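Exercise 3.2. Students should predict the tertiary structure of the chain below and write it as structure tokens, then compare their answer with the key that follows.

Predict this chain's 3D structure.
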Amino acid sequence: MTFINLTKPATGDTDYQDPDISPAGPRTTTPLDPDTARRNQQLVDQYAEQLYDAPADAILDWARTHAPGALIVTLSMENTVLAELAAHHLPEADFLFLDTEYHFAETLDVARQVAERYPNQRLITAKAQLSRAQQDKVYGPSLYLTHPTACCRMRKVEPLAVALSPYVGWVTGLRRADGPTRATAPALSLDRTGRLKISPIITWTLEETEQYIEAHDLIRHPLTSQGYPSIGCATCTLPVAPGEDPRAGRWAGNAKTECGLHT
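Answer key:
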């Protein structure tokens, strides 16, 4: 297991760049063509209510039938439920893993296993403009402690934005049971770029997720059995006590509750 550094670094050097300013380079999503954007809006207007509590297979079969172009499935590697579902219902879709370079070693091993288990679907790995070492040099050491929102923006939000450019929509692992900030999240919506945002396991509980993993003998992230029901970067994730909010260990001790991918 990778241990977590919760020690705030010294900040004697003040010659660092403002973390609110991202490094030069691509960091936004290419706009959709007007016809696709209109079609996506029509689909959400027509089907969002119908799909709100629909089962995962119905949502994914709907996506395969109606999406006006290519879709990509985002995988955090906390579990591989979406990969398994997509292999059956969206076999043409690509997989996307955001490698922040701060992941637990176990998370990277799950990503490797996913590539091996699902060879018919391309696994795309997206990274930030700067490596960890470059980020420390430009913005100061341990930005995840001194400015966690900026760190998430540069290492998660912006790489996702760039990676989504070739696609008309993305499939997410959002679940309403993950916490109060997601309690009313829709199964189908538009993101800020007008792309379809599809969440097939939105109604699943942690228990239902576990049942699916067991029934299909899926790849397991070993930390999920060690008190980590929600897994992000190793630097910003702690185990939680039984009965606690599953996301209570994310950015523990900080008012931050979301990385920005879903806000």
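Discussion points: Strands lie at 71-74, 94-98, 123-126, 169-171, 188-190, 196-198. Residues 1-12 have pLDDT under 50 and may be disordered.
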